[in-house]
Each structure stands twice: as structure tokens, then as C-alpha cells.
Amino acid sequence: MSNASTDKPGTLPAPAEAVEAVKTEARVGNAFLRVHGRRLLLVFAGLLLPLWGYGELVDHLRDGEVFAFDQPGLEVAHAMASAGYDRLFIAMSALGYLYGVVPIDILLVLGLAIRRHFRAGVFVAASVVGSALLNLAAKHAYARVRPSLWNSIAPETTFSFPSGHAMGSMTLAAVVVLLCWWTRWRWIAIAVAAGFVVLVGLSRIYLGVHYPSDILAGWTAALVWTVANYGLVYSGGRRPWQGIDVA
């Protein structure tokens, strides 16, 4: 008796069919990655990894576990104390929120609206306002008390986790990088944004008003929120500055 799988005209034996299917799938996958590879990388690096990191931090905090790096990180920062560093980090702390990030956020939204880049304006506004609201909600949800290893030269009285300065600076940085992602300014934006975010985060640890884990949580939460907003506002393959940005 003949095998039915090999007798039908125009069909391949089962092993050959499987090989051909795998080759076709590989070709389709390669074509997809060529078109959407950067977007997938952005989603993975800017959304999935930070989301996992934030979840790990929250789980430890809820379980009452001590982060092994928190106190040593604060002690290293405090050992750096000097008049020069005091001035630097007080200035960076101020720029990281009320006297830097907030005015730039407002000016960026207004500037985009005036230039009729309404989609970009919506993206920026939703990112910065939502980040601030998320920070307030998270602080009251976790109610973590501020560090008290020494008397800070710039004390704070609100809850500690996650850091509002870290979230605000990272949100602004991520917004700028994403808006510049498809332009020749991308790498300059990344370098400036990264330096600013790190200095603001260090300033809060140096001043003794945040644990390092507060900073990490603020960074990861802000990245997740901003990248998610970008994905929603620029869905369907749209890019900032592509065509008339009015809808």
C-alpha cells in the first residue's frame, strides 16, 4: 500500500512540509523585524524591563524586606559631603523638579501647541501629568518613611517611595528622547537626558531624603508610563514630526 501523505499530487512529505513551514516563518519573521524591530526593542527596553524591575521593588517593599543596597548607598553618598557638593546637589535637586522640570514641561506643551504639533503636545501633557498623579498615588499607597541616617540640609516631610524627582526628571527625559528618536538629534538627546536624570537622582540620595530604591522605582515607573503613552499616541506606525501633526 502507498502512503497517502506522499501520493497526493502537489504535496510534500510531512518532514519536507515542516522544513518549508519553518523557512517561511523565518522569512516572515525577518521581514517583520526589519520593519518593526526598533519599535519592539523600544517596547522591551522601555516598557517590559522597567515594569519587571518596578514589580520586584514593590514586592520587596510590601514584604517588609530591606534592600541590601539602600543604606550602603546612602552612606557612600554622605561620605562625599563637602560644601561644593552641597551647592551642586541642592541646585540639581531644585532643577529636578520645581525650578527646572516643571517649567520645562509647561513650556514644552505650550510650544508644541503653538507650533500646531497637537499630537506631540498631547503625548507630553499626558506623560507629565499622569506621572505626577501616579507618583502621588504610589507615595500614599506605600507610605514609606524618609531615610533618617543624618539631618538633611534640605529636609522633606512627604512619603519617600517612589521619588517624585526621579519620576519627574525621567518622564521629561523619556519624552524628549522619544520625540527625538527618529531624528538626527537622538544620541545628543539620550546623552543629555541620561546625565540630567542621573544627577537629579544622585542629588536626592546625597541630600539623604531618598533611598536608592526610591530613585530606581521612580525611574522605572516613569519609563513604563511614558513609553506606554508613546505607544498609544503614536500607534499605527506614526512618528513624531511625520507629516502634519494635527490629529
For this entry, give a set of tags.
mainly alpha; single chain
Question: Could you give a short description of this structure?
Answer:
This protein is mostly helical and 247 residues long.
Structure notes:
The chain has helices spanning 4-7, 14-62, 70-79, 83-95, 101-114, 118-142, 164-180, 186-206, 212-233. The chain is mainly α. Helix 7 runs parallel beside helix 9 (212-233). The model has no long low-confidence stretch (mean pLDDT 85). Its EC number is 3.6.1.27.
List the helices and strands and how they pair.
Blueprint: H1 4-7, H2 14-62, H3 70-79, H4 83-95, H5 101-114, H6 118-142, H7 164-180, H8 186-206, H9 212-233
Helix pairs in contact: 2-9, 4-8, 5-6, 6-7, 6-9, 7-8, 7-9
| Rg of Cα set | 24 Å
What structural category do the secondary elements indicate? mainly alpha
Strand content: under 5%
Q: Mean pLDDT, rounded to whole units? A: 85
> How many alpha or pi helices?
9
Major pleated sheet = none
According to DSSP, the number of beta strands is 0
Report the order of strands and helices: HHHHHHHHH
Helical content class = over 70%
Structurally, how many domains make up the residues?
1
Q: Which consecutive residue ranges, at least 5 long each, have pLDDT under 50?
A: none
Shape: globular
Distance between the ends:
66 Å
**What multimeric state do the chains show?**
single chain
